[in-house]
Specification:
single chain, alpha/beta, seven-stranded parallel sheet, 43% helix, globular
Length: 374
């Protein structure tokens, strides 16, 4: 039976967040209508990146603040108030997916008045992102557990970030949808001429490896190693290294791409880069969309060794690890791969083997909807 699903998230447009985009696509494919309520961080973003489907309606319940700034952080209490009153205004018995604790907690409080069903999609654990004094962090973690226990379902990318388990916790792995995989295979561009083709995508910023990537390319250029790098995604305006990276002569910068085009670049690359600054606590427990993309598209990847959650992939041979703050180590390993096609082939085969346990995102979401009796 088709039902309307309401989705609330603290961002301008779900089309810019792969996890939400995949989720909404699956909702629509299974016959559901979707209403999205978001936070338009910059004027016009919601319209510019609007979902092109009449089955998806979008509305901002908060505006302003930008992407990453002190003003943005200061507006989170306003976001929580906006979510609380939005949930009240939606009426009784709604089915509401909430991205993040900062959304699920106020929605859950409002649901005690409306009897709405709250699904807590915990893609990035809030207490690991925000820096607070220890006492306040303890209170926040207690509220996260309360929100988890009282939600109809608590969706997590894995159990690695949690020191509790509940019967309502549902693991939703970060993988592409089956349709996106097939489309990527059709869209894959011709390989650029180089001994090694590298791929980096996502939000290009200093805490996602941009300084290390740039310095490694400089080292390889000095050594005369012909490496080309595809880069796709959004460049943080405050990231000097992100801007330097996309201007490097070895880089082919694609800007922000539709999901399928971004996936297609894996198929024309030898290896992907997925770096997360370990000085940020949650980054040591990263659950990257890129890893699922790599597995499903048979592209091995390099991750910084401080990321604990990547151990499974490294042990399986589908990934290799180097230190985050060591561009020389990354350059050395890229040079090794450029002259060792057998090692790349072994990485590809390891990705293929892991596909048995990494099912497509849409299949997982269908099971989730069945669990909720949608």
């Amino acid at each position: 039976m088709s039902v309307e699903i309401i989705l609330i998230a603290p961002l301008s447009a779900p089309s810019r967040r792969p996890r939400l985009a995949k989720m909404i696509s699956t909702f629509v494919e299974t016959g559901h209508q979707v209403r999205f309520y978001g936070w338009e961080r910059a004027c016009g973003e919601m319209k510019t990146f609007a979902w092109e489907d009449k089955n998806v309606q979008e509305k901002a319940i908060l505006k302003g603040g930008g992407q990453v700034s002190s003003k943005t952080r200061a507006m989170y209490p306003l976001w929580m108030l906006a979510v609380f009153f939005c949930t009240l205004s939606l009426g009784r018995g709604q089915r509401i997916f909430c991205l993040g604790w900062e959304t699920a907690f106020p929605a859950l409080l409002a649901s005690f008045f409306t009897s709405s069903q709250i699904v807590f999609d915990d893609a990035d654990r809030f207490s690991m992102i925000i820096k607070l004094p220890n006492a306040l962090t303890s209170v926040l973690q207690m509220l996260e557990r309360w929100t988890s226990r009282n939600s109809a379902l608590h969706i997590v990318p894995s159990m690695s970030r949690y020191d509790w388990q509940g019967p309502n916790m549902f693991i939703l792995q970060n993988t592409p949808t089956s349709k996106d995989i097939m489309a990527a295979e059709r869209l894959a561009p011709q390989r650029v001429p180089a001994r090694l083709v590298v791929y980096a995508n996502g939000w290009l910023m200093d805490t996602r490896g941009a300084p290390t990537f740039y310095k490694s390319l400089e080292i390889l250029e000095d050594r005369g190693i012909a490496v080309r790098m595809h880069v796709a995604g959004m460049v943080d305006d405050n990231s000097m290294w992100g801007r330097k990276l996309i201007s490097h002569k070895s880089v082919i910068f694609h800007g922000e791409l539709p999901q399928r085009e971004a996936l297609a670049l894996y198929l024309t690359s030898d290896v992907a880069l997925t770096f997360y600054d370990p000085d940020i606590p949650i980054n040591r427990k990263a659950e990257s969309n890129k890893w699922g993309d790599c597995i499903c598209l048979r592209t091995p990847f390099i991750v910084n060794e401080e990321v604990e959650t990547a151990t499974l992939f490294v042990r399986a041979g589908a990934a290799w690890a180097v230190p985050y703050h060591n561009p020389e180590a990354l350059a050395d390993f890229l040079e090794l791969l450029s002259s060792n096609r057998q090692k790349l082939h072994e990485g590809q085969e390891a990705c293929r083997a892991l596909q048995r346990v990494y099912t497509s995102f849409d299949e997982q979401v269908k099971k989730l909807l069945e669990k909720l009796a949608f």
